Glucose-1-phosphate adenylyltransferase
Amino acid sequence: MLKKECVAMLLAGGQGSRLGCLTRNIAKPAVSFGGKYRIIDFSLSNCSHSNIDTVGVVTQYKPFILNSYIGTGSAWDLDRAFGGVNILPPYMGETEGSWYKGTANAIYQNIDFINHYDPEYVLIISGDHIYKMNYVTLLEFHKEKEAEVTISTLEVPWKEATRFGIMSVDEDYKITKFQEKPYQPESNLASMGVYLFNWSVLKEALIEDEMDEDSEHDFGKNVIPMLLNQGRKLYAYSFQGYWKDVGTIESYYQASMESLRSQESVNLFDPEFRILSNDTVQTPHYVGVDAKIENSLICNGCIVLGKVSNSILAPGVYVGEASEVKDSIVLPHAKIDANTYIEKAIIGEKTEIQSHCLIRPVGKYSSAHSGITVVQDHDIVPQGTVLEAGGLCR
């Protein structure tokens, strides 16, 4: 019987409510990032570069655009007769079936899918992180330590440690304590939400967790602490590189702005580790005679007649004459008419900002929203509109 050494399960079913109107119509992993990409491209590209050719994509919330985008997986070299990429929505069985109740339950409901490939290892990853990682090195570390579970980790600023699963380790990186989003963290070694399990151990844990009526069926809250309490061999793999959870407007905006400075972000221009995408064929971008562009990503199909600085224009964006876009992210096929000024904003897909509009932050803003104005997909902002509040999700 054919089998796979490692199967990846990519969690892509969350609503992404903290991204506000950016995920009102689509799943979070399908949100545009870095101009020509979608967030899920990073995890799928990591699998492709790591020669993990069997990926189950667990979907639930508004999956149509995401499912259509992934298609057969050929854009990431994941179209296989045995393996490849598989979309795994919730389903009804003969005796049971329900919506996914948590990250662990989502994997539990797909035990049959994993069993079909009879893997030694199962990699659990997320569809809403921006990073480059060769999972081969993670697997090698896991084997070297004879681990049963390996969690990829990185050190975070102490003030941010309350947002993550935090662990303590001994001198051999064996995990001695794990706390999910602790109020008073004892360490700043944070989980990246990348877990490598021996399949036999994971399967047993999922079944046990499913039988616990008090469980929230979550890896960080339930499964990892349970395995640690059972004395299983859990190790922390130290990741060295850029990683960002883009689950909020602020982190999404920050990661996008950092992508304009490759030394602070993932290098989108590295030919040795390309981020792959299901890129549609469009016309070349056009820059008008009076246009001016500084430190920006301008994708194919864009027409720029005004000024763009420190910004990202996704495919098919139009910027009219005498308009200026500064410190902003403009998502695919948005149109910005003439004589409009936009600063520190995220403009949704296929949105039209009519002429003589003003969108900018004013005053000082707390870290809760940082003065970022967000205009939802398919919106029309009427001529002469002024949006100066910041932090809006129009």
